[in-house]
Amino acid sequence: MAAHNNLDLSFGLTAGWDTRIILSGCKDIASDVSFYTLIYRNMDDKHMDIKIPRSLSRLLHLNHKFLDCEKDITPEFAEIYKANSDMAHINDWGKIAYGMSKTFPQEKVTVKGSCSEVGRCSWYPDGKHKVRLTDEDLLLLENGWEDIAFIREAIRKWHELIKKNSFNYPLLDLYYWEHAMGSWQAQSQLEWDIVQEVFSPFNSRELFDLMLSIDPLKRKCEKPSLYTDTMRYLWNEVLNEPINPYTFKRKVRILVYDIMSNTGLLNIVNMVKKRIRKKRN
Fold it and tell me: How are strands ordered across the β-sheet holding 109-111?
């Protein structure tokens, strides 16, 4: 409410959990603010991030617009974008940013659900945290990390330091917070600061403390009851449209993962990866 009283807000809307829980907190101000959905990476009308925001905005009578970010980036903008930050992702984020520069109202501050993934068991999606973690367990969470010597050493030092006192945080949540969300989201907001001002309500240590104090089984990545219960309390109608519904391909991947996990095949695959890495070294 404080942000609404002081800023002209526009809320991002997708099919996902992060924007939906933010939306659930907007019941009392929904008629006073705007909502938007970015179109990029060849998304068509069948894409869930198009279909669901369209249905949801009609159902809840939201002031919602789609912003077309499928525009050819100009050389002038590309030069400015690359100069704005190191390691700029010009061919992806840069293209989206150019589209936003042409479509997103510059007087508005965008509200994003980013960072809430920290509290959603992103690196142990079933909510079951391993009792003991090795350096290899941590390295295997990101493709290619085990092959890069300085990353292996950095993770080893971090793990050695933090396992002595993780401040009662589940280690994988802390790892995701520091080494995933703290990296890519920071880079994303740095690159896009030339086209929009961003407010991320979940970028709050107090909120992280609260979320991570809750039983991981209630904040599982795919269907976190923490989120659904919160939405039901704040604005039940936002649950009338599905959240991140599975495509057939994703259903198959989840089925295969569950079978491998329940039969022990997943552990065997991880052991083979570790042996291959050791041979390379």
Answer: 64-68, 34-39, 9-12, 109-111, 197-199
Angstrom distances, CA of residue 81 to CA of 45, 144, 244: 29, 27, 31
State residue 277's pLDDT score: 64
Same domain, 215 and 143: no
- Single out the residue of 120, 92, 127 nearest to residue 16, CA to CA: 120
The pLDDT tens digits of the residues spanning 109-123 come to 999 999 999 999 999
DSSP state for residue 18 in the 8-state scheme: H
Residue pair 71/98 in contact (Cβ under 8 Å)? The answer is yes
* Burial of residue 279 (number of CB atoms within 10 Å: 0-12, 13-18, 19+): exposed
Q: What is the extent of the structural domain holding 260? A: 246-281
pTM of the model: 0.88
Overall number of domains in the chain: 3
Q: How far apart are CA 96 and CA 72, in angstroms?
A: 10
- For 34, the enclosing helix (H) or strand (E) is strand 34-39
The amino acid present at 92, given as its one-letter code, is D
Under 8 Å between Cβ of 82 and 71 = no
